[in-house]
Write a structure and sequence with these properties.
Rossmann fold
């Protein structure tokens, strides 16, 4: 089955890199991309029911946190995992995303290869049978190559 992935991302380069990384993970997938928070909310309210929602934190018109709040009010999306996707990893944003029910907070890696690695890990976690919300200490997903290479 090819997953239906909804990406709310205003940056064309980040979006292209994301789509290219997905093509290395899934033999086939469907991706719908919107460019801002208003377009995100409109699409999800009116015609899209994806398997996964990925929200850039810093989008124009409505940011990822505002979109997350709106998605929480949409009963049809109650079972769809929502992931915040950002270069920003400030604790206040991570705390807010967790409080509002995001499945994970994915820190944007610096390279295509690292993005493939973290997305592979993310989708393996999301596909686990009986997936439920993770504990806060496991909420942030990032490239940890530097940390593990020091051991």
């Amino acid at each position: 089955m090819s997953p239906k992935i909804f990406l709310a991302e205003d940056d064309n380069d980040d979006s292209s890199m994301f789509e290219e990384a997905l093509s290395e993970i899934f033999p086939s997938f469907q991706m719908h991309r919107v460019h801002d928070g208003l377009e995100c909310i409109y699409a999800l309210k009116n015609f899209l029911l994806p398997d996964y929602i990925i929200l850039d934190l810093n989008m124009p018109l409505k940011n990822g946190i505002d979109c997350l709040k709106a998605i929480a009010t949409m009963p049809d999306l109650a079972e769809v995992p929502v992931v915040i996707y950002s270069t920003n990893h400030q604790m206040k944003d991570i705390d807010m995303a967790y409080k509002l029910g995001a499945a994970y907070y994915l820190v944007k890696p610096t390279s295509q290869q690292k993005l493939v690695k973290v997305l592979r890990r993310l989708f393996l976690l999301l596909k686990q049978p009986g997936f439920s919300r993770v504990l806060k200490h496991s909420f942030v997903i990032r490239d940890i190559q530097k940390e593990t290479s020091d051991h």
